[in-house]
Amino acid sequence: MNIGKLERITLTKHLAVMIKAGIGLSQALENLSEQSKGDTQKILKQIKIKLDNGSNLATAMSKFSNVFDEFYLGIIKVGEQTGKLDSSLEYLAVQQGKEYALEKKVSGALMYPGIILTATIGLAAFISLFILPKLTTFFEAFSTDLPATTKLLLAMSNFMKNYGVVFFACIGGLLFGFLMLLKIAKIKLWWDKFILKIPLIGRLIVEREVSRFARNLATMIKSGLPLFEALKIAINSQSNLAYKKAILELSTNLEKGKKMTEILKLPNYKLLFPRLVSDMIAVGEETGSIDESLFYVSQFYEEDIEETAKNMTTILEPAILLIIGLMVAFVALAIISPIYQLTGALG
Question: Is residue 16 a contact partner of residue 86, using CB atoms and an 8 Å limit?
């Protein structure tokens, strides 16, 4: 059973409103389950049963870890302990809404280049497997010496005619093998570090990870979670393995008595956390408002993601169109040149 992200945000918001209005938690869950369908209704009913049997909300929700992650459960737990469950739910609704919007911005920025690249590869595969082989016989009938572009096209055509299916099967096999290798922790860590160094894409991922880290950590601190515990929960909310490892090391160093600012300024953190992050956290540590500083960092990088996404589209669009144009020009030149050469010879 599962609940979509958008539905979970709506559910959290409605639950907060009901509790704030004075409706008991059990009754609020029953009301929401009556308004829901499918998996959502089943999950809410099971949570209500556990509540009625004496369990608290965080424990009841923990059964559905694929729906309610550690960050979510941590905020709920603090809300129950402090008697401010409605406020905790409001925090969750707002922060998850921002997280959802952030994911949409990142996926939107990568979608256009991805679609164009996929279409280009698909078109190239179609031409290679079905069009080029049919041109082989036609061009081989020419008695004149063929241009270099046509010879290259014929070589590609013959290769695809004889080995095309095997070639694309090997490409698919290599891709599948690579995805399997990424399940190995050391290789996944190397890959996650590598993509952070790719121009534009790497910057976009850094901004996403930093924004997510800052926002989630700030929310947990503001809700009352101790910094050490908040950091351990924040690890699970990161998608890049390099950030998971860095935050774990950060938590360990904090337990040894070091300041967060000192740690973030170390060389191995520079790629992952820009200078702005350590500077703002330093201000937060001095003023005792580290949550406010983290919220500022999160907002700054969320806005920066929009700018990076626009720049990525602006830069990649002409580059991709240029590559497609060169491919079309090469095929057109290879086909037209011998025909023009033959026509000239006959004339």
Answer: yes
**CATH class as words, domain 95-347:** mainly alpha
Q: Which residues contact 252 (CB under 8 A, 6 or more apart)?
A: none
Question: 198 in helix, strand or coil?
Answer: coil
Per-residue pLDDT band for 174 (boundaries 50, 70, 90) equals very high
Query: Residue 170 corresponds to which amino acid?
Result: C
Cα angle 255, 69, 209; round to 5: 65
Return the ∠ at Cα 154 (arms to 336 and 169), rounded to 5°: 125
* Residue appearing with tokens 């790719």: 198
CA pair distance 84, 199, nearest whole angstrom: 44
Q: Which of 45, 75, 89, 79 has the alpha carbon at shortest distance from 63? A: 45
| Token pair of 129 as six digits | 């497997």
Residues of the chain with CATH 1.20.81.30: 95-347
- Using a 10 angstrom Cβ sphere, with 0-12 exposed, 13-18 middle and 19 or more buried, the burial of residue 151 is middle
Lowest-confidence segment of 150-164, 175-189, 239-253, 268-282 by average pLDDT: 150-164
pTM recorded for the entire structure? 0.71
Structure tokens at 336: 């037209």
Q: Given pLDDT bands bounded at 50, 70 and 90, which one contains residue 98?
A: confident
Q: Which of 251, 246, 280 is nearest to 266 (CA)?
A: 246
Cβ neighbours, 10 Å, residue 5: 13
Confidence category of residue 19, pLDDT binned at 50, 70, 90: confident
Longest dimension (CA), the chain: 96
Q: How many CA atoms lie within 13 A of 113 on its CB side?
A: 19
